[in-house]
Design a protein that fits this description.
The protein has 397 residues and is of the alpha/beta class. It folds into 2 domains: 186 residues, Response regulator (Rossmann fold); 144 residues, Rossmann fold (3-Layer(aba) Sandwich). The protein contains 12 helices and 15 strands. Strands 7-6-8-9-10-14-15 form a 7-stranded mixed beta sheet, with helices on both faces. Strands 2-1-3-4-5 form a 5-stranded parallel beta sheet, with helices on both faces.
Length: 397
């Protein structure tokens, strides 16, 4: 009996020691390190844009605008009492990259929204994935057709090509008297192939004549043949629907061949490298539209300009402004819905009306498409890029 009692007592003592150790381990695991946020304490936003490659001039300022908005939100307490974290992967302007990144944001990083991409083609790739996974994607630059039609989780806050191009064509034909027009399209650029039909339809409907058409490919550098054809055509102006890099090279070739012609295009020409690569060949010779200008700013835009310049020591562009607004609009929708769940706050997002953003006043129509006014005509003027040439009113329908 005595031996059994001693063994039983020893066994009980051992068990007490084990439970004590296990309890201590569990306690240590449950107590977070001092200052470290517990899981779920941050609202994550995934950035979609290129930080390297041919369209980095859109993504880099966009990232800055997005981070600036996040910093401001966090300084004011975040969203619904939680701090906001931006996650930034570089999609390099490539479809395969943005597909992988979008999937990673949703399945691994567990973001609450996707901000971007600034281009139409890449936005469509990401939007298809986002819609299937019930994730809100808010493009800060996609202007082409067929974006929000992908589904009810897809939004954008930019001036649409279908709105802007007809207004610009009216200016070309009726204000400038450019009746005979040439059109150049970039065949391997989804933005360009979508924008060209919009310009062509507007030119025809408004009494203009397309006297020459040609094509290029993004990435080409020799446009001698295209410019020679353009010179022989005798057009009053050139509509180019591609991006800023090829625009600058085309205008350099035109200057070399003694062709004095104005190029008109969409906001795909809005990139700092337009002025850097084009120099005197593009100065007041390339005109493009956008929904944002640093000239004649609203009070909201004026404050944004001051804060952005102080933070980055440079001027913002339309992508900086639109990414900034996208974050702030998402934050408003989450706050109004009292939820960071995309399936919940997207309903509040769709109700947005007369939002006084830094990139203009935005209202979402019933189809979630944005309306913005006016159309800003921009150019390169001396040291100024972009310089405001004119503001054209838009009849909101």
């Amino acid at each position: 009996m005595k031996g059994r009692f001693i063994k039983r007592t020893a066994l009980l003592l051992c068990m007490m020691m084990v439970f004590s150790l296990l309890g201590g381990c569990a306690s240590n695991q449950q107590t977070p390190q001092q200052g470290a946020p517990a899981a779920g304490d941050k609202i994550k936003l995934g950035f979609l844009g290129a930080l390297t490659g041919s369209v980095a001039n859109y993504g880099i300022p966009g990232q800055k605008g997005m981070q600036m908005a996040i910093d401001e939100l966090n300084a004011e307490g975040g969203i619904l009492g939680k701090q906001v974290e931006g996650i930034y992967y570089d999609n390099k302007g490539e479809s395969s990259e943005i597909a992988n990144i979008t999937t990673k944001y949703i399945t691994v990083d567990k973001v609450s929204a996707l901000i971007g991409d600034p281009t139409t083609g890449l936005t469509k790739v990401a939007a298809d994935i986002a819609q299937k996974n019930k994730m809100v994607i808010f493009s800060s630059g996609a202007t082409g057709a067929g974006v929000v039609e992908i589904g009810d989780y897809v939004f954008r806050n930019t001036l649409l090509d279908t709105v802007a191009a007809p207004v610009v064509v009216d200016w070309m034909i009726n204000d400038k008297g450019w009746q005979n027009l040439a059109v150049i399209t970039s065949n391997n650029n989804g933005y360009s192939t979508a924008l060209t039909p919009i310009f062509k339809q507007a030119i025809t409907e408004q009494g203009g004549t397309i006297i020459a058409e040609d094509t290029i490919n993004d990435g080409e550098t020799d446009f001698s043949a295209q410019v020679t054809k353009l010179k022989n055509a005798g057009a009053d102006a050139l509509v180019f629907t591609g991006y800023y890099t090829e625009a600058a090279l085309i205008m350099n070739e035109a200057q070399k061949k003694g062709l004095d012609i104005t190029m008109v295009g969409g906001d795909g020409l809005y990139g700092q490298d337009l002025a850097k690569l084009g120099g005197t060949a593009v100065e007041e010779k390339v005109v493009f539209y956008a929904g944002f200008s640093t000239d004649q700013p609203s009070p909201e835009t004026a404050k944004f300009l001051t804060d952005y310049r102080a933070k980055f020591n440079e001027d913002p562009d339309m992508f900086s402004a639109q990414y900034y607004d996208a974050v702030m609009i998402i934050a408003k929708a989450m706050t109004d819905a009292n939820s960071t769940d995309p399936s919940v706050y997207k309903a509040e997002l769709a109700k947005l009306t007369d939002y006084p953003g830094v990139s203009g006043v935005t209202t979402f129509r019933a189809d979630r498409e944005p309306t913005k006014s006016p159309v800003c005509l921009l150019t390169v003027k001396g040291e100024t890029f972009p310089a405001l040439l004119d503001k054209l009113p838009v009849e909101v329908k």
